[in-house]
User: What shape does this take?
Amino acid sequence: MLDINFILGLQPIQTLETASSSAGTSDCVVNSSKLLDSPPFNDLGALCDPGKSIDEICQLVNNLSVDEKFSLLFRHVAPPAVFPPTFSHGFQRRFNQSWLNKYPWLLYSPKLDGIFCGPCAILLPVLERKDKGMLVNRPFSNWIIISSILANHSSLHYHRNCLAMADTLKLSVENPSTRVDVMFSDSIQKKITENEHILRQIVRAILYLGKQGLPFRGNAEKVSLSSNPGNFLALLKFFAETDPVLSNHLYHPQAKNATYISPQSQNDIINVIGYDIILAGIVHEIKASKFFSVIADEVSSHGVEHLTICLRFVDDHCEIR
Assistant: This one.
């Protein structure tokens, strides 16, 4: 089916992370919040909420788009100027900004007052992350042992793999031309652009003949013949003299079943222009007018009834049409 928008030009992470209370860690249980309630979300705590099961978190992470992963990794919500205190082992303890500076892969969640390893929490494959706990599926907030936990995590094999994946993700988003799929799609986009150009030229020819009230068909509707091909094909051949893209399409079509110059294609385009553009425009103007009248007349011919409707209305310029 022909695209009316085109014709209108409206172009379309086994390790210390699994440590439980025996290591002195404690989860801060918060109310579960629904992911993407207020997009775009940028706090990893909304995704790896302790109120969700690990299976739920794995599924949510697996469903993230590339843009959402990039947003969580590199546009994560900024940490507060003053971190909230937590009473532990007889003292008020809180997160320290220096840990973020020392381990740039850390992400602090203001929602949970805990930290995650961003690359591991977002990019670790589902089958590898299901047995992971702190820093991956759960926030870490035991500030007493944080130094040893982070030092150990930074030496893990899967962590280094996730760091590499994060670098690749950043490069692919910030410089899309380096992506294989983009380089492949460039050739596809070129073909789309050529097809759009060809269709525009075909529509130009149809609009011209329609405005001038000229017939379309000829004696032999073939571009390759020297006899009269009709006004439509003759006009396209004239356009092709200075248009190599159209000329290649007319004389050397790559898909002979999709040339869009057949009588059926001509009628389809005419119907789109007539009903979806011209008639729709008139109806819109009439609906917007304050005054209009309807005149209807019916006649019969060879047992078939024909109803003619005439409309008169006052347009935005106070003119009767």
